[in-house]
Design a protein that fits this description.
Layout: H1 2-22, H2 30-58, H3 74-83, H4 95-111, H5 130-151, H6 155-186, H7 191-196, H8 213-226, H9 238-241, H10 251-276, H11 290-293, H12 298-319, H13 325-352
């Protein structure tokens, strides 16, 4: 019983620390941000339910259907179970870093939401360097992975951390180049300005998914790899290295890593929607059909797009077999990075040619 109480207390401490790191520069908006974080955690909980149900339907299985009507309370039961599981700290581990690593993995996944616009004017901090802030925050998460593997003092965990970190670095470079393409197209580092640059009289044909199609595809696939999701989940291959960098974690310490993974999934889906699919913009904006959908709030369009990309995450897991590690690294270094660099040159040509409707006013 004492161990269970300690587990719950440690879980609350981890969440408070993560929230404190995240909200440090947004003192006046802390109440709204806490509500947003609670909504995100609820989304994570029911994303796990959706994953089990959708993959079950794809593979002709039932999925959770016992706790609550149609299994809707299963995520709540899972959260309670994790909260009361015993946390085991290995005797030879670095205990401070062992506990700190999950915080370092989760805090950036929460902090990035400070600059993500949900709708016009719905953003916590509408900074001009939003794109740079995203790159800075998302690059911190890899340290949580490395520290978790090293602090465990386990060869299995350390090997999993090295493989996972190498994979994250490889695909993060391609993601960075893809974001450079968005910067060139929009002419701004501000995320709200990037969304507004995709507005026009052609609806969804004004969005950047058309001129930046290779970057759009690469960014999303690299995002799947960044989050260690199938088919790029080689770091968690049970038959290879047990369960990756968090093999020694249990209870709420493991749950925080679990939360960080699903928060990053939602984040990648949201950023893909903002950068390439018009964010909160209606697909019918500026077209004759806009009159029929003008009543739909922008935040609804935004979350619909996020839901579509999250479905692709789940679809990939149910469909594709796991890649070999050499295939993963070859795809990141030898395929994605050269394609993104080449397409940046193509975007430069588009801008010089004032290619309508995306670059009509960006020519030099």
């Amino acid at each position: 019983m004492l161990i269970s109480i300690a587990s719950v207390s440690l879980a609350l401490l981890l969440i408070v620390v993560a929230l404190g790191i995240t909200a440090f520069y947004m003192i006046e908006q802390i109440p709204v941000f806490i509500i947003t974080v609670l909504i995100l955690l609820l989304m994570v909980a029911y994303l796990t339910y959706a994953e089990r149900k959708i993959i079950g339907y794809i593979q002709i299985r039932i999925g959770p259907n016992r706790v609550g009507p149609r299994g809707w309370l299963q995520p709540i039961a899972d959260a309670v179970k994790l909260a009361f599981k015993e946390i085991i700290l290995p005797n030879t581990s670095n205990r401070f870093l062992f506990v700190f690593a999950p915080i370092l993995a989760m805090a950036p996944a929460l902090a990035v939401w400070a600059v993500v616009p949900f709708a016009k004017g719905w953003v916590f901090s509408d900074i001009n360097a939003g794109l740079l802030y995203i790159l800075a925050m998302t690059s911190i998460g890899v340290y949580g992975v490395i520290i978790a593997g090293w602090a465990s003092n386990s060869k299995y965990a350390f090997l999993g951390a090295l493989r996972s970190a190498a994979q994250i670095v490889a695909y993060e470079i391609a993601m960075g180049f893809a974001l450079v393409g968005v910067l060139m197209a929009a002419g701004s580092l501000n995320l709200s300005a990037i969304v507004e640059a995709q507005a026009g009289s052609y609806g969804l044909l004004n969005w950047y998914w058309i001129p930046l199609l290779p970057l759009f595809v690469i960014y999303f696939i690299a995002g799947v790899a960044e989050t260690n999701r199938a088919p790029f989940d080689v770091a968690e291959g049970e038959s290879e290295i047990v369960a990756g960098f968090h093999v020694e974690y249990s209870g709420m310490l493991f749950a925080v890593f679990f939360l960080a993974e699903y928060l990053n999934m939602i984040l990648i889906a949201a950023l893909t929607a903002v950068m390439f699919m018009g964010g909160w913009l209606s697909p019918f904006a500026g077209t004759p059909f806009d009159a029929f959908f003008v009543w739909v709030p922008g935040v609804v369009w935004f979350f619909l797009k996020v839901a579509v990309f999250l479905f692709f995450f789940l679809w990939f897991r149910a469909t594709f077999p796991r890649y070999r590690y050499d295939q993963i690294m070859r795809l990141g270094w030898k395929v994605f990075i050269p394609i993104t660099i080449a397409w940046l040159l193509v975007i430069g040509v588009f801008i010089l040619l004032d290619l309508p409707p995306w670059f009509a006013e960006k020519g030099v």
